[in-house]
Fold each of these.
Amino acid sequence: TVGCVARDRNGDLAAATSTGGMTNKRPGRVGDSPVIGAGTYASNDGAAISATGHGEAFIRETVARDIAALVQYAGLDLTEAVRRKVMVDLPRIGGDGGVIAIAPAGAPVLMFNTRGMYRASACEGGDAKLGIYAD
Amino acid sequence: CGWALALHGGAGTILKETMTPDREAGYRAGLEAALAAGREVLSAGGSAEDAVVATVMVLEDNPLFNAGRGSVLTSAGTVEMDAAIMRGRDRAAGTVAGIHGVRNPICLARRVMERSDHVMFCGAGAQVFALEQGFEELPASYFETEHRRNQLREAQEKNEISLDHNDHKYG
């Protein structure tokens, strides 16, 4: 799965996710990527999110929408909202994977509970960051 | 705060000890190319939705990542792709599921968002929509790679369904 979240100079957010699914999946199985609110979500009032991992868990935990809602309604910092879903709620139901997220202000958050996630980020005026492994 | 961008190319059991230098260099180059595409849009004053599409298209075209060309294979040995896009300012969204033959599924999802009254098309209906919108249908050989066929064979031998990336070596 691949994905991207962005904030432009107007402060508008967007999220995109694309995937081939899981190896050896049953034909017709749909994961979280195309399910709005599970693997992809964007609201200027909360955050933009794209996910990767075990799609069924992300659907059951409505991960992307929950993160935006935690920012919008509960006033959580984006990092804490992502941490709660990726490091607490998903592992509780055996959900492996990660999330990238961006809010109307501040730096992007990239978090995962697996051994690695191919990832990169950049902010205006800052250096690009790129990572693969958990450490 | 200005513009900002983040991308991912999948998660899983990615271990440095089972990664070859060449393969790691390939992944890093792919991530850098995708990041550059998004940065170019945003630094020129482009929209967030243009940036996420430009970024994802680069990743879809790179066979190292599980989307577009290089997608993993189903138990039937076929490619089934899903994609979604959402715009934050008005919560417009477009998604497609279970499609094949479309080089950049994210562009089809965007077309659903911009040129239909709906949010999601799946399967045969999505294929018809793609043709109506002028998307070329590419042969399966464009999407399939030897690496993915090896992954499928191993997954079937183990009777498992696996994430994009694991620590198995092939060849």
Note: The beta strands of chain B are 4-12, 81-87, 93-99, 120-122.
Amino acid sequence: DKATNPSNRQEDWEYIIGFCDQINKELEGPQIAVRLLAHKIQSPQEWEAVQALTVLEACMKNCGRRFHNEVGKFRFLNELIKVVSPKYLGDRVSEKVKTKVIELLYSWTVALPEESKIKDAYYMLKRQGIVMF
Amino acid sequence: TVSFHDDSDEDLLNV
């Protein structure tokens, strides 16, 4: 909540790194974290969603394979797909948030080729015309 | 304590 608080004036890296540390400490950290992050990323408040995406990116860089495995499941990827798809939340979500989600997905297809479901999700969005370029 | 490792997943959404 503190790492994504809409009243933060700017991204609060103390809390963001604290969230990453907590994931690394706990056995079920990645599973719990992705559920919390999916909820924040779908926030109707743009700034809360943007901060949640920054936290997600930080976790991908700092929480290792256990976290990558969890993000690389359709269970989580589907929550990101809902954000960009007009069939779900896409019409109500800002372009900024949608662009960031697509940029993250693309960056992981390059950085984590072993997480094949990320590629499946990204190329499905491309085929459906939701990712244009 | 023994932790249950959840390896389950769902299907990819269709948009």
Note: The interface with chain A takes residues 3, 6, 8-15 of chain B (CB under 8 Å).
